[in-house]
Amino acid sequence: MRFLLVDDHAIVRKGIMDVASDYAEGIVFVEAGSSREAMEQVAREELDLVLLDISLPDESGLSTLKKIRRVRPELPVLVLSMHPEAEYAVMALQAGANGYIAKNSATDELVDAIGKVLTSGQYVSERFSVNLVREMAPRDSADPRTLLSERELQVLLHIAEGMRQTDIADKMGVSLKTVGTYKSRAMKKLGVKNNARLYEYLIKHSLISPF
Length: 211
Fold this sequence. Notes:
This protein has eleven helices and five strands; from the N terminus they run E-H-E-H-E-H-E-H-E-H-H-H-H-H-H-H. By secondary structure, the chain is α/β, with parallel strands linked by helices.
């Protein structure tokens, strides 16, 4: 079996490979440290699974996931992230992931997640399953374009793309504190409490695409 491991930290990749090796003997790991490298490997290699981090240096993991889905729709993708499930799991699943797991999960949970993605096609933890209905609850129908300033909306769209707030600050030419202010003020106006609900809200109002 050939697994593509996409993470920009070599030490983290090594740790994940050590754990993932327990799934089966003889797994060959192909590594990528950026979105660009990941897409090159997807085009070149015959892969059985992609283990994909959300935070990459050149492009968000969610954007990378959408690209993978366009060229290899059948390729299983398990998203691994430092972010808790309540923040990003819904986004990842709606973007086309077969599963989501936090990097601080127990090692046996990662092995279990790999197995379920490869055999049944999907994995979500019990914790996330309990909260899924709540996370997918209907949202306020107000149009964000009439509620938010242009800068507030710009920050939220970048967050929905998976960008880190430090990168958003650099892109917009403002301070990190200003980005945080825009985010908290905008999310309060929309009545959303986390990134997952924000992602759903923006999809509903056709400001971003789930694909």
